[in-house]
Write a structure and sequence with these properties.
It contains 7 helices and 17 strands. The protein has 351 residues and is an alpha/beta fold. The chain folds into 2 domains: 5-48 and 160-338, QueA-like, CATH 3.40.1780.10; 52-146, Thrombin, subunit H (Beta Barrel), CATH 2.40.10. The strands form 3 sheets. It has a 9-stranded mixed sheet. Strands 5-6-7-10-9-8 form a 6-stranded antiparallel beta barrel. The chain has a two-stranded parallel sheet with strand order 4-11.
Length: 351
């Protein structure tokens, strides 16, 4: 059993909040019995890259860790936006990690079999744009051989790559797992299919979730590329036309669908870039409900939830989740929140 599974998926909990603010909690396994015929569940099928690379700053010889954070261009797998940290590892809280050695454009970083060159600093001593020397295949191969999953101090045991892949993982473009997808299993998908609930996927390059610096965290999420297949766009538009609800599995799906949604709420297929934050001022055009992890105030993920529920309700949810022992972080428990304005006559509750 993997490190992630040892966090006891069988006992995972689910807090459900409907559009009227009614709250109840159930085992996460009850997800298979939720939703109604005609609803459509959309998940992110991105697989997670081993995006943490250890090595040294060539000029000084000092050790560092580079965490790839997002693509400069998804069409060029040799160029990334990245975070740099000094000596230490994931067992030290990110906010307590040592700073990297002073970095400057042109500096070389020796990262296992790879050499990366810093192109420019991005307004912070640890945030850089860099490119790897070599051809596409050798760069991706070097990342696969030398990299490890980005990891935080709440899980001390080193994670293997398969620990951060959901069961539907397909395209390796994410830098951290689209972790809401950990709630999905084949039994749940089969139950939805038998009950006439649709399921579709898109691919969104989930970026880094924490930089360890409060000011830098305010710039999250970074711009993230996505791809919506034609079949998924058609399924979303048909479900909306038929009065069904769109349930997003995770914040990345919300970002992709809302970025691709036009003023008429129709979603276009193809590639795009999700930029900017979704928050309390955002008018959701496509998504009616979100399944997500338990997030804390101040995080960009929590800010996105303000598009679904007002501050008072989110505060009540947070207090309730804490009092009932809900686990936070990517391998924790889950919440299902219906948009406060999403009230279809034939779908009065998430049940």
């Amino acid at each position: 059993m993997s490190s992630a599974d040892r966090l006891d998926r069988a006992s995972a909990k689910l807090l459900i909040v409907d559009a009227r603010g009614k709250v109840r909690d159930v085992p996460r396994s009850a997800l298979a019995s939720l939703f109604s015929r005609g609803d459509l569940v959309v998940a992110n099928d991105a697989a997670t890259l081993p995006a943490s690379l250890r090595g040294a700053h060539v000029a000084s010889g000092e050790p560092l860790e580079v965490r790839l954070a997002t693509w400069v261009s998804v069409g060029d797998p040799t160029r990334f936006v990245a975070l740099a940290f000094g000596a230490g590892d994931h067992r030290t809280r990110t906010e307590d990690r040592a700073a990297p050695p002073p970095l400057a454009p042109g500096d070389r970083l020796a990262l296992g079999p790879l050499v990366a060159v810093i192109e420019r600093l991005l307004g912070h001593p640890r945030l850089v744009a860099l490119h790897f020397l070599g051809e596409r295949a050798s760069v991706l191969g070097g990342i696969a051989r030398h990299g490890r999953p980005i990891q935080y101090a709440h899980v001390a045991e080193p994670l293997a790559l398969w620990d951060v892949w959901t069961r539907i993982a397909a395209h390796p473009v994410a830098f951290e797992p689209p972790s809401a997808g950990f709630a999905l299993d084949w039994r749940t998908l089969g139950a939805w299919r038998r009950r006439g609930i649709g399921f579709a996927t898109l691919t969104h390059a989930a970026g880094i979730s924490s930089t360890g610096d409060l000011a830098l965290d305010q710039r999250l999420p970074f711009d993230e590329p996505y791809c919506i297949p034609e079949g998924t766009a058609a399924a979303v538009n048909q479900a909306k036309s038929d009065g069904g609800r769109i349930i997003a599995i995770g914040t990345t799906v919300v970002r992709a669908l809302e970025s691709a949604g036009g003023t008429d709420s129709r979603v276009g297929a193809g590639n795009g870039i999700a930029s900017g934050r979704i928050g309390r001022e955002t008018r959701l055009r496509v998504v009616d409900a979100i399944l997500t992890g338990v997030h804390q105030a101040g995080e960009s993920h929590f800010e996105l939830l303000q598009a679904f529920a007002d501050d008072a309700l989110l505060s009540d949810i947070s207090v309730l989740a804490m009092s009932r022992g809900y686990r936070t972080h990517e391998f924790g428990d889950a919440m299902l929140i219906e948009h406060k304005l999403s009230r279809h006559p034939e779908h009065q509750e998430l049940s």
